[in-house]
């Protein structure tokens, strides 16, 4: 090549140099253009030799993007040096020490690529320091590549070389070693991988093998040789399937956390899925920010997309031309909506449909058919449900465990590990994968109808097996096993309703009734189905039994007024002396005691008498415990304890089993009577009767906290309340308000007045929302004390005067612990005029609203 002439030769020399350096860096033309801030067309034209003399600032940008610390020779090759000497292309061998600035070879992590992965990144960095071979597995689009690149970047030091091997275009297992050599930038003709791996010190080299699932045997063979023969090398693999090697440490990459609800702005804003979506939207719509107005829509969108990073990214890309509301509405056809415009990354990950199809196409025929059929089960579901609904040619029932394992291994099915001891093995499909599988099943003619009908038949048979479970020693296990398939029962009920088979739907609801009680969100579905079936069946008694179920579930979800309404109607349809008649009457008494209805109190003697005559010891004991709890709410402590002890005495009978709620009621009664040792005894029994990993720990933790508080053990009480706080956020349950109440008492005792204000305000809000009016009489005296602690004595004295008037003239009286707090706070107050009032519930709610205004 001439120094004096040959413009064409000079153009070709720089073009070859740029091409060579780009390949060594593992960059595509698009990626180099993105880093340099140039157009892809500019890169293409330079590498083709069609640009006579690239602009100097463009060459500098390219040098920076390529990581060249001394760009002088690079500039000279482009014709911007002091002379016209052209630097010939050079291939750098990594077997020699790598030049500064080229210790990273291949795709680099995106600076803003990770959101909500800090804990996973920290764990992965530690794994890389302790293990030679780590594989990240997960469904397509979950973010394995970015996590692996970020972990390698964080792990690498000044003396570490990171080589990223993109296996996307490798078609054969035998070609894997060549792909790795190419990533190292070895000289042409180098064929022995050992030459570039030998002599490495520990921590000197990390090889990231990305997108390995389609050449798994080749990757496994090479990785096994690397970690066995070259102790200085670490290997990090991303794949949808584990390699299956003995030295391999597997970590499943999970989807990003989504908001638990649509209401709490702080929780929505803290969600990693929401954070990622908002960041990506801001790239195409800079003015976009999360606000209380759009947060519910964003939360629903992120949940619909399962928190899957690729889906969030593709949806965010649409925000340049569509509103978030429009994107959410269009998700019913998500594969069309999320079809682009992603022009980087692996070809099979540029649309959502391609990403899912890449994995599904690699399945065996039986596994693919099982995936399709599982799409009708709802999510999550159990192995038992799969075997009962999804078998038949080409799926043998005996092969179901093996086929489920294949789907899990290939990251198309997710094991649900949460509460595994309670609910057994469960599996779930990401909604994106479920929709793909559902479309596959729908395309197979009548298969969809067949398997939905099978769901109805299986659920009908299943609930028949639950008859008598209430009196069984393993009733909790049976009902929890049923609850584990609650999504499938929803599918079966939808199908039965579609066919107008309301008697079949009613049988399923009646059989499944207890299983709905384990989770508030599922219980709401039970209420809907119970009331719908009750309105459709012709048998009045069956309708009444369904309404009694709706009443029970309404009470559990905090809708006391709804519970009262359902129980009221149920008791007019069911004979009062039958088992379900006693359930309806007991529920009516319980809900009425919450609402300060005196008729409920008057019903208790007749109800207890009928329960004792019923002949079923278990039902009699349950009714007496229910009535005992109602009497406790009304301050009839001695009568309440008598009925609760009758329940406790019945435990010696077959079919009567310990219940933490009744034990807690006994603890509460003795606490109010001043029997602290007995209160502790019952609280411990409540704890011991609850499953050790029961997700609803609030009740027992709160009960023990009260005992510790009144025993002067404030640190122990505070620790128990901390245990309960997380549970309160996730569900509504018995006595949650007491956790808030005692949090306020502890904070006030410690001088933390603001914390006390927030806690007592939350307790009042919760009780007003749920309609548990009677418990406000325990909370309002603490509100008086907090108002005085805040220096708002006028408001505190005014409320105190109202409560003193209540205590003198109204029923029920405040419980002793609440009355003691009021007396301590009301030295300067006198009873208000205008009492008694005609409507006790309305009076208490008025006082509660006054408190909220004073505490705001």
Give the key terms.
43 helices, 856 residues, mainly alpha, single chain, Arc Repressor Mutant, subunit A, 6-stranded parallel beta sheet, Rossmann fold
Walk me through the topology.
Layout: H1 7-24, H2 29-36, H3 40-47, H4 56-65, H5 72-77, E1 104-105, H6 118-130, E2 133-137, H7 144-155, E3 161-166, H8 176-184, H9 193-197, E4 205-210, H10 216-229, E5 233-239, E6 248-252, H11 265-270, H12 272-284, H13 295-304, H14 309-317, H15 324-329, H16 334-337, H17 352-360, H18 365-374, E7 381-382, H19 383-389, H20 400-409, E8 414-416, H21 420-423, E9 426-428, H22 431-442, H23 447-464, H24 475-483, H25 486-499, H26 502-512, H27 520-536, H28 540-556, H29 560-573, H30 579-594, H31 598-614, H32 617-633, H33 637-649, H34 660-673, H35 676-689, H36 698-710, H37 714-730, H38 736-749, H39 753-770, H40 776-789, H41 793-809, H42 816-825, H43 840-855
Parallel strand pairs: 1-3, 2-5, 2-6, 3-4, 4-5
Antiparallel strand pairs: 7-9, 8-9
Summarize the structure.
With 856 residues, the protein is mostly helical. α23 crosses α25 (486-499), α34 (660-673) packs parallel to α36 (698-710) and α38 packs parallel to α40.
Tell me about this structure.
This protein is mainly alpha-helical and about 850 residues long. Among the domains are: about 15-80, lambda repressor-like DNA-binding domains (434 Repressor (Amino-terminal Domain), Orthogonal Bundle); about 105-250, Rossmann fold, CATH 3.40.50; about 350-445, Winged helix-like DNA-binding domain superfamily/Winged helix DNA-binding domain (Arc Repressor Mutant, subunit A, Orthogonal Bundle); about 575-650, no CATH class; about 660-735, Serine Threonine Protein Phosphatase 5, Tetratricopeptide repeat; about 740-855, no CATH class. It contains 43 helices and nine strands. The strands form two sheets. Strands 1-3-4-5-2-6 form a six-stranded parallel beta sheet, sandwiched between helices. Helix 23 packs across helix 26 (about 500-510), helix 29 (about 560-575) runs antiparallel to helix 30 and helix 37 (about 715-730) runs antiparallel to helix 38. The radius of gyration is 34 Å and the shape is globular. The termini are far apart. The model is unreliable at about 1-10, about 80-100 and about 730 (pLDDT under 50).
């Amino acid at each position: 090549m001439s120094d004096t002439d040959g413009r064409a030769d000079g153009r070709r020399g720089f073009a070859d140099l740029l091409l060579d350096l780009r390949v060594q860096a593992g960059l595509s033309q698009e990626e180099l253009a993105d880093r340099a801030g140039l157009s892809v067309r500019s890169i293409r034209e330079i590498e083709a030799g069609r640009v006579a003399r690239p602009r100097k600032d463009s060459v500098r940008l390219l040098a920076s993007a390529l990581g060249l610390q001394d760009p002088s020779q690079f500039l000279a090759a482009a014709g911007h040096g002091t002379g016209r000497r052209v630097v010939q292309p050079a291939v750098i061998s990594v077997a020699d020490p790598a030049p500064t600035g080229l210790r990273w070879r291949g795709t680099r992590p995106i600076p803003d690529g990770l959101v909500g992965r800090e804990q996973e990144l920290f764990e992965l960095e530690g794994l890389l320091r302790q293990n030679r071979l780590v594989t990240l597995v997960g469904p397509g689009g979950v973010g394995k590549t970015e996590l692996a690149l970020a972990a390698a970047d964080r792990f690498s030091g000044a003396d570490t070389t990171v080589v990223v091997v993109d296996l996307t275009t490798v078609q054969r297992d035998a070609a894997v070693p060549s792909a790795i050599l190419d990533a190292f930038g070895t000289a042409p003709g180098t064929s022995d991988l050992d030459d570039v791996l030998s002599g490495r010190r520990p921590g000197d080299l990390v090889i990231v093998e990305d997108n390995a699932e389609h050449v798994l045997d080749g990757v496994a063979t090479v990785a096994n040789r690397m970690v066995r023969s070259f102790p200085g090398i670490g290997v990090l693999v991303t794949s949808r399937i584990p390699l299956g090697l003995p030295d391999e440490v597997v970590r499943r990459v999970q989807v990003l956390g989504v908001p638990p609800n649509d209401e709490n702005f702080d929780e929505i804003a803290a969600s990693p899925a929401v954070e990622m979506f908002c960041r990506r939207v801001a790239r195409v719509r800079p003015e976009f920010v999360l606000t209380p107005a759009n947060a519910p829509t964003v939360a629903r969108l992120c949940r619909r997309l399962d928190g899957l990073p690729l889906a969030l990214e593709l949806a965010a890309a649409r925000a340049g031309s569509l509103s978030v509301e429009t994107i959410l509405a269009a998700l019913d056809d998500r594969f069309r909506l999320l079809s682009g415009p992603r022009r980087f990354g692996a070809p099979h990950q540029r649309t959502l449909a391609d990403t899912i199809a890449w994995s599904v196409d690699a399945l065996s025929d039986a596994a693919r058919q099982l995936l399709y059929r599982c799409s009708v089960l709802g999510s999550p579901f159990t192995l038992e449900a799969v075997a009962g609904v999804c078998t038949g040619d080409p799926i043998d029932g005996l092969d179901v465990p093996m086929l489920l394992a294949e789907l899990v291994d290939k990251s198309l099915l997710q094991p649900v590990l949460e509460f595994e001891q309670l609910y057994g093995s469960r599996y779930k499909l990401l909604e994106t994968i479920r929709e793909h599988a559902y479309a596959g099943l729908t395309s197979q003619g009548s298969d969809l109808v067949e398997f939905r009908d099978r769901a109805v038949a299986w659920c009908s048979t299943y609930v028949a097996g639950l008859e008598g479970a209430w009196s069984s020693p393993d009733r909790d296990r049976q009902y929890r096993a049923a609850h584990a398939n609650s999504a499938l029962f929803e599918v079966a009920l939808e199908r039965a309703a579609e066919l107008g088979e309301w008697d079949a739907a009613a049988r399923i609801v009646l059989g499944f009734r207890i299983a709905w009680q384990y989770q508030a969100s599922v219980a709401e579905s039970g209420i809907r189905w119970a009331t719908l079936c009750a309105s459709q069946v012709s048998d009045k008694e069956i309708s009444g039994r369904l309404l009694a179920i709706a009443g029970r579930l309404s009470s559990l979800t905090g809708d006391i007024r709804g519970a009262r309404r359902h129980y009221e109607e149920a008791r007019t349809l069911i004979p009062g002396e039958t088992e379900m008649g006693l359930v309806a009457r007991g529920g009516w008494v319980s809900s009425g005691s919450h609402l300060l209805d005196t008729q409920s109190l008057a019903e208790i003697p007749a109800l207890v008498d009928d329960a004792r005559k019923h002949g079923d010891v278990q039902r009699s004991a349950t009714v007496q415990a229910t009535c005992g709890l109602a009497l406790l709410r009304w301050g009839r402590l001695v009568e309440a304890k008598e009925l609760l002890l009758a329940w406790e005495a019945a435990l010696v009978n077959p079919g009567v089993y310990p219940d933490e709620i009744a034990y807690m009621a006994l603890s509460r009664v003795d606490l109010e009577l001043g029997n602290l040792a007995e209160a502790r005894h019952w609280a411990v029994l409540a704890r011991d009767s609850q499953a050790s990993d029961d997700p609803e720990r609030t009740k027992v933790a709160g009960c023990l906290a009260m005992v510790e508080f009144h025993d002067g053990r404030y640190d122990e009480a505070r620790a128990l309340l901390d245990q309960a706080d997380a549970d309160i956020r996730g569900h509504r349950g018995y006595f949650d308000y007491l956790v808030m109440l005692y949090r306020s008492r502890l904070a006030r005792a410690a001088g933390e007045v603001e914390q006390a204000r927030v806690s007592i305000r939350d307790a009042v809000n919760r009780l007003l929302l749920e309609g548990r009016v009677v418990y406000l009489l325990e909370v309002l005296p603490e509100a008086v004390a907090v108002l005085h602690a805040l220096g708002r004595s006028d408001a505190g004295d005014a409320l105190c005067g109202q409560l003193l008037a209540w205590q003198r003239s109204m029923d029920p009286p405040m419980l002793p612990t609440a009355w003691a707090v009021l007396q301590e706070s009301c030295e300067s107050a006198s009873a208000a005029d205008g009492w008694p009032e005609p409507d006790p519930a309305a009076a208490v709610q008025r006082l509660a609203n006054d408190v909220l205004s004073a505490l705001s």
